[in-house]
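lol so apparently i was supposed to do this last week
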Amino acid sequence: MGNTGFSLALMMALLLLHFVVSFSTETTPNISTDQSALLALKAHIVSHPQKMLKTNWSTTTSICNWVGVTCGSRHQRVIALNLSSMLLTGEIPSDMFYHLSRLQVLY
Ligand SMILES: *[C@@H]1O[C@H](CO)[C@@H](O)[C@H](O)[C@H]1NC(C)=O
Ligand SMILES: *[C@@H]1O[C@H](CO)[C@@H](O)[C@H](O)[C@H]1NC(C)=O
Ligand SMILES: *[C@@H]1O[C@H](CO)[C@@H](O)[C@H](O)[C@H]1NC(C)=O
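anyway here it is w/ 2-acetamido-2-deoxy-beta-D-glucopyranose bound
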């Protein structure tokens, strides 16, 4: 099997896993679960020199106004994360991608 075949198989396996996990959780993901996922991500950051997220990612405003977060205009769910110039260090929580089920782009 070539690289392309392997990548495709891996992608299909991940997609299948995604659906299995989505259907087996009792809660339907929404903007609140997206917020929880982003707060979990924030909690996993060990180094953040610019401290941008510390005050900006505040629950007093919608996550759609948070720096680096883009929501879909129709469903108001997170579709893109751009954390690329924030010099972040930390681990991405393993379940983040299941919760941010509308996420399409991650920088
Ligand atoms: C999101 O889903 C949770 C759990 O299903 C529910 O309690 C909450 O009211 C929902 N929030 C919104 C904004 O739809
Ligand atoms: C967070 O940053 C965004 C984009 O720079 C800005 O529009 C928003 O007002 C900030 N929110 C807070 C609470 O600082
Ligand atoms: C990500 O954000 C940085 C800083 O705001 C910006 O310079 C860069 O162009 C953005 N990248 C994309 C692909 O939107």
